[in-house]
Amino acid sequence: MNIGEYSVRTPVISWLLVIIMLGGGLWAFERIGKLEDPAFTIKMAKIITYYPGASAKQVQDEVTYHVEDAIQRMEQVKQIKMSISRPGVSDIQIEFKDKYRAEDFPNIFDELRRKVADMKGRLPPGAQNPIVIDDFGDVFGVYLALTGEGYSWRDLWDFADAFKRQLVLVPGIRKISIGGAQKEVVYVDVSRAQMGELGISPSQISQILESQNVVVTAGNASVGNEYLRIEPTGEFDSVKAIGDVMIGSEDKKLVYLKDIAEITRAYEEIPSQMYYVNGKPALTLGISMQAGENVVAVGERLRQRVMELIPTMPIGIQLVEIYNQPAEVDKSVGGFLVSVGQAVAIVILVLLLFMGLRVGLIIGSVLLITVAGTLFIMYLDGIELQRISLGALVIALGMLVDNAIVVAEGMLVRIQAGMQATDAARETVGKTIWALLGGTIIGILAFSAIGLSPDSTGEFANSLFWVILYSLLLSWVTAITTTPLLCALLLKPGQPGGEHATDPYSGPIFTIFRGIVDRAIRLRWITVGMVIALFFLAVFGFGSVKQAFFPESNTPLFFVDIWEIEGTDIRKTREDTLRVEAFIREQEGVVQTTAAIGGPHQRYTLVYDPREISPAYAQIIVKTDTLEQIPEIWKKVERYMREQLPWTDPIIKSMRIGPGRDSKIEVRFHGPDPAVLRGLSQQAQGIMHDDPRSKDVRDDWRQPVKLIRPIFNEQVGRQLGITREHLATALQYAYDGTPVGRYRDGIRILPILMRAPEAEREDPGNLQDITIWSPALNQSVAAAQVVSGYETLFENTILRSRDRIQTITASCNSIEELATPLFNQLKPQIEAMQLPPGYSLSWGGEYEDSSKAQGGLMRALPIGFLLMILVTILLFGKVRQPLLIWLTVPLAVVGITAGLLLFNGAFDFMSLLGALSLIGLLIKNAIVLIDEIDQQNSQGKAHYSAILDSTVSRLRPVVLAAATTILGLIPLLQDVFFVNMSLTIMVGLGFATLLTLLFVPTLYAILFGIKPSSG
Fold this sequence. Notes:
single chain, 32 strands, elongated
């Protein structure tokens, strides 16, 4: 008794399985996590070290070098992806090896901190402790902005903080980050000349202010039975109180600080980063959710709490939504569920039309049971409903009915011939169980490369493999258990169709098809010749197929990145950004603009790639009504910036799906000399500029920046007791201000900065007149006495390295939809450049991303193909049958090329996965057909007749399996992420079906030397 017969004889067990899968599926659907994109680990960390006053070169040599040296001692590090040395700051980005997953990183980050801490002793004096940033990949899925006409930055921050304290308590919320807060400072504007007249040194004021407001313990005193704390007065209780501090002058008189200084509480004159929404100043609230949560449910709880808090908001303060991942996920999952429903309906309709009402209902029911069971297992395994897993369900739908069709077809023929249901189940399942299992395993192994691929792209699409694995294995289980049970209930001997019991394949369609197969085998060499000709034509034609990596998103958002000339004041960047933002809002279809000035937005989606902080950088998020409006707005913005702001260097880009980067074409030059690297970069950029298809040509070192260098006269300085440090402090005081203490105000600690009055700060020509306190003379002297002159130089303010080798990257984009044609044109020209000894070149951009992703697949492919070959050999226990099957595999390229060329598709990463699945489907169909031929041969039937009869008997299952898969993919044609994969499978499977039904039997006859006379 086999499984099929057991299912019919003891239906209780089979019904129990059905109830578990249906009930578990419904239960899981209500609880399963929902995401927009699959979660994948951003295997990166940053180490930032501040070294105030140092040049980029000094930072590189004295800080970056030592931090990199410590990092490289970790075996988990894949590469030091980028080290950026700027004046006063070292920014190092590390990438860890692909094999590590999310659960490994707490320990990795702990070890990273230990390595960095052990290295601190090698840093120079003045360098601050390195900061390890390990939440680099945090995603703030709900991204809000807070604006308020007439409210100060402090008012906005106070309300944002109060809002944060309430929202962080919502179940499922992990953390909330406030962005764009403006730093408050206390400015003490005092003239050095006036201090000199009174004989007051800056250090006097600094010492008094620092000591006056520090928290100190005054001890405790016993008073009777009490033990009381002592706290003296004198602490600043307001900014005004700072002016009441008394300073001793040279003639031993005391003066109030307010008499010689103007004391104000203000926002930092030169801000570090600002946000604007629709042209209004704003703070941002980035809200991240706990891992494994259903973001739609958390989003609903968050929305309800926000609605409760809105009545408490002061009049004029508005909460603006920039990005709402729960809403996007709900819309995305809802749309996909519609696609899944459409696919299920299409598959069932096809089955009803071609298999009859009863068999159609049987297979349709088995399909629904299998889908429900798959959802149940996905929930148990922690796989969320997201773009990839839902797409995998749609892809799997057609394949899920393959096994059921074969079993139902076999039982239908036998029951219509008068056989009892139990016997029909035993014979049908007994003959097909192992062939179906082998074919199912082959179909699963076709996707194994994505399951085994270790890189980030593989991790991104990893759930595709597991959903296919669970669903196909379940389809085999339900095919040999549930399908016989339902067939036994609904298909009884003597039902319609019984008149063909003597020969179920005597109908006109089967007769015509039998004649076609007979002719193909008789004209075997013509058949083989035509197939080989098609193969070479397809290989040649594949060179004309467009190549791509990942498609753009269908979310109606795009970005405008604005790069000013390096060294530009952030206030100029703000001015230009607001001009562009105002122009964008004038365009029809624009709903909202959100600008981040001086740095990137918070990471609000997993695939958002934040740029580094720079006062010369801004990014505008543009939200439109529809996706179709973006190209026209895009062109207008490009033209406006080219004509009205020609000094800027903008990049306009779409929102991506999956990994990627801003510049699709990148060439990196590595070597020791910055001047030589700049020359090589300019040469490469010249080649890019010469091609009319290129745009956004640039390099990542940007422009050299002017530097003012006072020439210190050390001899005179020694005589006056003035050091280089004294000069630097005086210059800092004259412009930025020097820190002289801190003012504590509740939760805020404000730095107190002493600086020159505004009149003395306005003109850089006053450098000569800046006064410096001379300890030797006990009075102030002019800077001109210790400065012999001034130089204006150019310096590199950005020095980048990769894996400790200085690297400059020249990049561009293509004006065309795909970058590959331009890349193929530029690559040989740039590689023909003569590089000096010690310098090398490497490619980045989409080429590198695609190579890594495909490389990850290719490393995993041999294992998958080896297992597939072993399965075919184990199934047949012979060599010729597997050889026959694998001879047909390369022919899949015919359908792939035809489909992509015919419908103007591109061979991208998802198309590659589609090609792998197509190979699995082709092998699976061939296995079932060849197994049937072998079985009929083993029963003593004439060899030629066995080939014809077996092929005809497999016509309906193979065609129906192909039709359900092809038609079931129709809903995915409207999804930009899956359209190329769908085209690859649909057209490829159509051709693969012809291969299975015509070429496989012909090749079988050739390999086994079977002639028509043998029939």
